[in-house]
Write a structure and sequence with these properties.
Largest sheet of chain A: 6 strands, mixed
Structural class of chain B: mainly beta
Helix content of chain A: under 10%
Order of helices and strands of chain B: EEEEEEEEEEE
Radius of gyration of chain A: 13 Å
Oligomer: heterodimer
Strand content of chain B: over 45%
Helix content of chain B: under 10%
Shape of chain A: globular
Number of strands of chain B: 11
Number of helices of chain B: 0
Largest sheet of chain B: 7 strands, mixed
Largest interface: A-B, 19 and 20 residues
Strand content of chain A: 35-45%
Number of helices of chain A: 0
Shape of chain B: globular
Amino acid sequence: AQRVTQPEKLLSVFKGAPVELKCNYSYSGSPELFWYVQYSRQRLQLLLRHISRESIKGFTADLNKGETSFHLKKPFAQEEDSAMYYCALVDSSYKLIFGSGTRLLVRP
Amino acid sequence: SAVISQKPSRDICQRGTSLTIQCQVDSQVTMMFWYRQQPGQSLTLIATANQGSEATYESGFVIDKFPISRPNLTFSTLTVSNMSPEDSSIYLCSDRDSDSYGYTFGSGTRLTVV
């Protein structure tokens, strides 16, 4: 079955600390993976997609097919990074399947 | 990427009534989707809105409860029918961009059923 797992509901770090939000997936084939972010009272917006290999707002994510992971990382967290982060997988019917989400709280 | 305008942004409705949510995309898109986000939860796909044919519903969602229209490649509606307090949620539409294959989301409709 196609599935996305985000094991942490809440991740709390201090400003300037490194951040890693975990995402594991289950998919038979070449996965298409995204990270979406939802700031308070804002719409869901795309942060990263694995095929672009970009760094957005200092965040990066590397697809590890051996570990079936797509963890989101940032070396130095900022307070404005506090938000809800969702990992998502495109299934064989082009539907986007979301993980349960991780709330990142960056403390001053 | 496409921009989606979704309305209403919020509504408070009486149980037993119906609410229709609209999404307008600023470009033609092949695929549109409807999601539900219950309080404190992730997004759950309700259905894929197919242009010119019936929507494809996910397990646990039925057409009688959530009828969907997709009259053209830029517009879709979701109706929440015969509402109960359990339908209180945020409803979002989304599209898959035909060029970039990215997914864009509407701003959501926060529905409260009393």
